[in-house]
Write a structure and sequence with these properties.
It is a single chain. The protein has 227 residues and is of the alpha/beta class. Helix content is 42%, strand content 22%. The protein folds into 2 domains: 118 residues, Rossmann fold (3-Layer(aba) Sandwich); 99 residues, Arc Repressor Mutant, subunit A, CATH 1.10.10. The chain contains 8 helices and 11 strands. It has a 5-stranded parallel beta sheet with strand order 2-1-3-4-5, with helices on both faces. The longest helix is centred in the last third of the chain and has 18 residues. The relative contact order is 0.10.
Length: 227
């Protein structure tokens, strides 16, 4: 699961990044509101943790503009302010939850787990499209038509999890590269094509009617094959 952390206090940011990565989250960090909004609008994050007081744009405005742009990523707002009016402002701006500094690590992690459960489009622990079922806990892809299953590699799992969570949308190479390799990672776009090829082979192996279609000049989309 990939998290965007927007926090301008260097020590706080470093501590949160280390803690979240220890908990096996993939974390990208930005230090100002404008960068946070740009990152959120890329639609590659499963959750976002936004500090309220940031340079260029505060967390309230980031959340407000992100929601106006159609971003549905769950947002947890962090702030030193504890007044009720500030909490209401955060929630009305589009945040899903609110945590006041200082906070306990256990509480932050519990709230992130709750947001993850709330936002996940799972049925019985799986993501589904057409005759495909993906169990993200076991990295197992199953074709319900043939009954055939296969274990996925890490990158294959991330690709299919992202595409199954965004059904009906065309995923660009830029979005996939950012989602799989990270905001600050300079992975070559041909990495996307290589792992996309591996993923397609897994779909063929299980005998699925679902395919990953390349849309010229745009990106990739999940589609059911014409029978």
């Amino acid at each position: 699961m990939r998290i965007l952390l927007a926090e301008d206090e260097k020590r706080m940011a470093a501590a949160l990044v280390a803690m979240l990565r220890q908990e096996k989250y993939d974390v990208d960090h930005v230090a100002d509101g404008a960068s946070a909004l740009t990152a959120l609008e890329s639609s590659v994050y499963d959750m976002a943790v936004l500090d309220v007081m940031m340079p260029e744009m505060n967390g309230f405005e980031v959340a407000r503009q992100a929601r106006s742009s159609g971003v549905k990523t769950p947002i947890l707002m962090l702030t030193a302010k504890s007044q009720l009016d500030d909490k209401i402002t955060g929630l009305d701006s589009g945040a899903d939850d609110y945590l006041t500094k200082p906070f306990q690590t256990k509480e932050l992690l519990a709230r992130l787990r709750a947001l993850g459960r709330r936002s996940a489009s799972f049925q019985d622990g799986s993501l589904r499209y057409g005759d495909l079922s993906l169990n993200t806990s076991t990295a197992t892809l199953t074709c319900e038509t043939t009954g055939q299953s296969v274990r996925l590699g890490e990158k294959e799992l991330r690709i299919l999890e992202y595409m199954l969570s965004n059904q009906g949308q065309i995923m660009t190479r830029e979005q996939l590269a950012m989602k799989i390799w990270g905001f600050e990672n300079e992975a070559e776009y041909n990495n996307v094509e290589v792992y996309m090829s591996f993923t397609r082979k897994k779909l063929v192996f299980v005998g699925s009617k679902v395919e990953i279609k390349a849309i010229r000049g745009l990106g990739y989309e999940l589609r059911e094959k014409d029978v």
